Amino acid sequence: MLVYSFEGFKESLTLSYYRHVLFNATYLKVLAYPAYIALLTTLLTLVLALPAAYYLAFLAPPNVRGVLLMAFNVPMLVNLLLKTYALLSILQPLGLAYSFKGLMVGMVYEYPPC
Fold it and tell me: CA spacing 20 to 30 A to 90: which of 17, 30, 76, 82?
C-alpha cells in the first residue's frame, strides 16, 4: 500500500498526500472516531474482564470456577455454532458443504488470523 501511495510521481517521491491527510480536519475526524471507539472498547473490556479473571484465578472456590467458566464461554461457542450453520446453509446449495474447498472456506471464515 505504501508503494501505491507514491504512484503517479514520476519525477520525485513526496509526502504531500500524507501531509494533506494528517493536517486536514476532515480526515482527522474520520481517523479519530474509529480510534476513539477502539480505545473505549478496549478500556471497557479491561474494566469488565480483569476483575472477572482475577476472581476466577484467585478468589473463586474450585466448585464455582467451572460454572463461571461455562457461563463465560458458552455464549462464544453458541456464536461459533450459529456462524457455522449459517455458512453450511450457504455452501450446501453450491455443492461445497462437505468438500475440501468447503472446509477451507469454513476454516478461513471461522478462524481469521486477526
Answer: 76
Instruction: Using the structure block, give the residue that is written with the C-alpha cell 480483569.
Output: 50
CA dist list (Å): 69 to 28, 53, 66, 74:
41, 10, 5, 8
Longest CA–CA separation in the chain, Å = 71
- 77 and 95 belong to one structural domain: yes
Domains: count for the chain:
2
Which structural domain range is residue 91 located in?
A: 62-114
The 10 Å Cβ neighbour count of residue 87 is 17
Residues 105 and 96: beta-carbon distance below 8 Å: yes
Q: How far is Cα 32 from Cα 30, in angstroms, rounded to an integer?
A: 6
Q: What gap in Å lies between CA 101 and CA 91, rounded to an integer?
A: 10
pTM of the model: 0.56
